[in-house]
Amino acid sequence: MNKKKIFYVLLSFLIALGFVTGLEAQKVKVVNGVEVISNPKNPKAPKDVPSKLVLKEDFTVGDSENLDKMISEVSFLTVDDHDNIFAVDIKEMNVKVYDSSGEYVRTIGRKGQGPGELNIPAGILITPDNQLLILDIINRRMSYFTLEGEFIRNVSIADKTSLANPVMDDKGNMAAMELVLEGKQMFFYMRKYDKDLKPLFDVNKVEFKNPLAGKMNLFDVIQINVFDSKGNLYFGDAKDYVIKVFDPEGKHFRTIEKKYNSTKITKEDIQQMLDAIPNVTGVNLKEMLEFPKYYPAYESFTLDEEGRLFVRSYKKGKEKDVFFLDMFSTDGKYFSTLATKANPRVWKNGKMYSIEENDDGIKVIKRYSVSWKK
User: d(Cα 75, Cα 121) in Å, to the nearest integer?
Assistant: First the structure.
């Protein structure tokens, strides 16, 4: 066998082992009773896992020329069991409802302080008994409606400085980020509450620096949480590529981590973020902000109905508005990455709902049909 043939045989062998491509196996260990799944930068996908996610766009909502049907500034969304879409329009202070075919149905709420009125809605959920819950920041309450849009009641949250990023499990327990004053300091807690908003346990605590005392980095207070179908709470603050999983009683039993390359924040990125900040009379929010050199480890994450984890990174694709979506199996092992414009918010009934910008730079909601291939 000549040297050239030996080289190609050896090369084929190395490729088969993953040495040339740099693929590494995940490492699983137990540290202080917590299962830690360590995924390297280029993980080797587990065997017998359908690794190719196929997204087929069904329709887009929110970009209608009809002012009643369009969404001026979509911020949050939820979907009921019949695939009706409930989208928060934070600019118009209401909720737009679309049916399973993407047709506009109704508008719920309007700007104001009275019953059924909203003032900066900062989250939307469907409760286990099929009521629509809207978190209202300025009015400091949670407003409840029927899914048909009839106002039911308000529940005051005036005893709390602020709540944000609410999620709910199948039993009506909620997890949210709460701003707490402790002396002269402010902290954002990530907490789980029962259905009466009684705190059950804390997951994390981050100091929120007073913006009047100096510039602030909004990335410092990012906290992401989501429940799975078993009531386990997935939490991450994106300072590193680490996601912690807590059982319904608050026990930290799993950590999912992945090595990654940091993405630099460009001047164009900063300007785009500044342009997205609304103008508030008497306050120049833009002057209060500072930006780090690099983005956090990831932007957000979601879970599908099977419990697969999807992490949207800041790594940019070749095309405009394309980013990479890292995908992990139900046991926290990486199996694939997808370059896509989709930014997943909800997975339900074999569909994925995304908030993304259209060609005109307007945020819209897109629904995709989901399928898998090996």
Answer: 9
